């Protein structure tokens, strides 16, 4: 029993230690923001790799999620003869929850893992040490642009996911199942609000982007400089990001959508 309690205490202290290290790393990145702003070319280049190259998987995934929502929603609403609100149901589910959450998890599995592997490879090949020798701060040159690129890309990717998902719901509800297009769009426009639905979803995606990007760059910067170390760091990035996004989603939903 005592050993069990000791193990719980060790894991708890290790979690607090890692959380504190991540917070200190985040503060260091925030302190270097002026340098990133003065050299926007690095951040724009990283936005291409982390954002633009993720558009296809985000858009296709959003399309199929919206189609599934449209099909299941129409099936359930038809039982109560209220299928006219299908557009509102699809939009609400995507804008409030599924869009930011699923887009963040997909971003973590693609761009987040790539960021970790890239920084880890630079550490393994001693490129980061070479920057220190040349009096170049590797956090400012390598880490900060990737972090802010991920933060800025995440709301845009979540918006693409939402638009694609709503279009998927329209294709199933209107084009396939025969729901009136005017009814589909009118109920959506009448029931959705910018501040409550759209803005809160964008705030969620921005916070998710910060969390995923921080985990990705932290794991890459602090991984062991071996092939196995990079592999483990990439795996931790994806798993930790998914769990963090789900936990943050619960906390943010409790503040945003409950009265």
Walkthrough of the structure:
The protein is an all-alpha fold and 259 residues long. The chain has one domain (43-254). Helices cover 87% and strands 0% of the residues. The protein has 10 helices and no strands. It has helices at residues 2-31, 33-38, 40-50, 55-79, 86-124, 127-133, 138-176, 181-191, 194-221, 227-256. Helix 5 (86-124) runs parallel beside helix 9, helix 5 (86-124) runs antiparallel to helix 10 and helix 7 crosses helix 9 (194-221). The longest helix is centred in the middle third of the chain and has 39 residues, at 86-124. It is globular and about 70 Å long. The model has no long low-confidence stretch (mean pLDDT 87).
| Cα end-to-end separation | 42 Å
Number of helical stretches of at least 4 residues: 10
Secondary structure: helix percent: over 70%
| Biggest beta-sheet profile | none
* Cα radius of gyration in angstroms: 21 Å
- Strand fraction: under 5%
Structural class: mainly alpha
How many beta-strand runs?
Answer: 0
- Please tell me the overall pLDDT: 87
Silhouette: globular
Give the topology string: H per helix, E per strand: HHHHHHHHHH
Can you tell me the residue ranges where pLDDT is under 50 for at least 5 consecutive residues? none
Integer count of domains: 1
């Amino acid at each position: 029993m005592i050993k069990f309690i000791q193990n719980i205490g060790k894991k708890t202290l290790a979690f607090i230690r890692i959380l504190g290290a991540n917070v200190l790393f985040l503060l260091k990145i925030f302190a270097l923001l002026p340098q990133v702003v003065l050299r926007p070319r690095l951040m724009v280049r990283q936005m291409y790799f982390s954002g633009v190259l993720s558009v296809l998987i985000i858009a296709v995934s959003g399309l199929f999620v919206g189609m599934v929502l449209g099909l299941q929603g129409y099936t359930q609403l038809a039982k109560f003869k209220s299928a006219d609100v299908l557009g509102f149901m699809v939009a609400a589910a995507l804008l409030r929850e599924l869009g930011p959450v699923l887009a963040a998890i997909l971003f973590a599995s693609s761009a987040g893992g790539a960021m970790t592997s890239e920084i880890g490879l630079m550490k393994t090949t001693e490129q980061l040490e070479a920057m220190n020798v040349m009096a170049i701060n590797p956090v400012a040159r390598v880490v900060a642009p990737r972090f802010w690129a991920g933060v800025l890309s995440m709301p845009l990717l979540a918006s693409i996911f939402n638009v694609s998902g709503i279009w998927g719901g329209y294709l199933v509800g209107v084009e396939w199942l025969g729901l009136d297009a005017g009814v589909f769009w009118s109920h959506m426009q009448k029931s959705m609000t910018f501040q409550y639905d759209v803005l809160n979803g964008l705030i969620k995606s921005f916070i998710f982007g910060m969390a995923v990007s921080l985990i990705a760059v932290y794991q890459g910067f602090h991984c062991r400089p071996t092939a196995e170390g990079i592999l483990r760091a990439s795996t931790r990035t994806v798993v930790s990001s998914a769990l963090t996004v789900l936990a943050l989603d619960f906390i943010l939903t409790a503040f945003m959508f409950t009265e």
